[in-house]
């Protein structure tokens, strides 16, 4: 199976994540997409994250009606902070019967040359890129690379940061979250302080 790995803190997962993941799996040669919940992104402050199991639970309930989308907690048992190259090596070893590709936004492709061992990632994996409104330019080495596939997907500009701030400020952002995720957040009183 050809599996796309969509990494994120999903703090919380929102409809933008679902729109992108579902569009990618339905409009590419990927058979499934695994949403990999990251315990700690080396580029983000750890103190703003909900506990791992809460973020994973929200991803699980959000994916209830999406049979081609799965959650993954593979990084929970890896050394922190998580680096994509390490996770890819681990997941490839654990699931040697599958092929793994990366899914990333165009904004991440623009900084991909700064990732740890990005050459090894590109040598061993395909990358599917969805459009984002972002500043900067893509390195010319990635422009027509045979392993980088730009997918014509809807541009979704919803961020988890915006959702967290809106909840804290008591704004109604229910349309931006799957119904069951909103219920979970509301019951647990997350992001309200």
Radius of gyration from CA coordinates: 16 Å
- Going across the biggest sheet, name each strand in turn: 3-2-1-4-5-6
What is the number of strand segments?
6
Looking at CATH, the homologous superfamily is: HUPs
Number of discrete helical segments: 8
The residue ranges in which pLDDT falls below 50 over 5 or more consecutive positions are none
Percentage of residues in DSSP E strands: 15-25%
CATH architecture: 3-Layer(aba) Sandwich
Please tell me the overall pLDDT.
Answer: 91
Distance between the termini: 43 Å
Key descriptive features of the protein:
Rossmann fold; 6-stranded parallel beta sheet; alpha/beta; 16% strand; 6 strands; 193 residues; globular
Describe this structure in words.
There is one protein chain. The protein is α/β, with parallel strands linked by helices. The protein has one domain: Rossmann fold (3-Layer(aba) Sandwich). Helix content is 36%, strand content 16%. It has helices at 15-26, 52-62, 84-94, 106-110, 118-124, 140-143, 160-168, 179-188; strands at residues 2-8, 32-37, 69-72, 99-105, 127-130, 148-150. It has a six-stranded parallel β-sheet, sandwiched between helices. The model has no long low-confidence stretch (mean pLDDT 91).
Give the gist of this structure.
The protein has 193 residues and is an alpha/beta fold.
Secondary structure: elements and pairs:
Layout: E1 2-8, H1 15-26, E2 32-37, H2 52-62, E3 69-72, H3 84-94, E4 99-105, H4 106-110, H5 118-124, E5 127-130, H6 140-143, E6 148-150, H7 160-168, H8 179-188
Parallel strand pairs: 1-2, 1-4, 2-3, 4-5, 5-6
Helix pairs in contact: 2-8
């Amino acid at each position: 199976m050809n599996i796309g790995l969509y990494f994120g803190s999903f703090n919380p997962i929102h409809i933008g994540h679902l729109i992108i993941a579902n569009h990618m799996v339905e409009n590419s040669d990927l058979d499934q997409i695994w949403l990999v919940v990251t315990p700690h992104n080396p580029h983000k402050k750890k103190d703003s994250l909900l506990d791992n199991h809460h973020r994973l639970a929200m991803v699980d309930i959000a994916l209830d009606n999406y049979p081609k989308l799965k959650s993954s907690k593979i990084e929970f048992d890896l050394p922190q902070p998580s680096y994509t190259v390490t996770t890819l090596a681990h997941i490839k070893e654990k699931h040697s019967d599958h092929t793994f590709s990366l899914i990333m936004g165009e904004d991440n492709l623009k900084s991909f040359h700064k990732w740890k061992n990005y050459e090894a990632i590109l040598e061993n994996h395909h990358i599917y890129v969805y459009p984002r409104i972002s500043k900067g330019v893509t390195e010319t080495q990635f422009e027509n690379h045979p392993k980088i596939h730009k997918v014509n997907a809807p541009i979704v500009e919803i961020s988890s940061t915006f959702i967290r701030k809106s909840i804290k400020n008591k704004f109604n952002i229910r349309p931006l979250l799957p119904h069951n995720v909103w219920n979970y957040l509301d019951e647990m009183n997350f992001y309200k302080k």
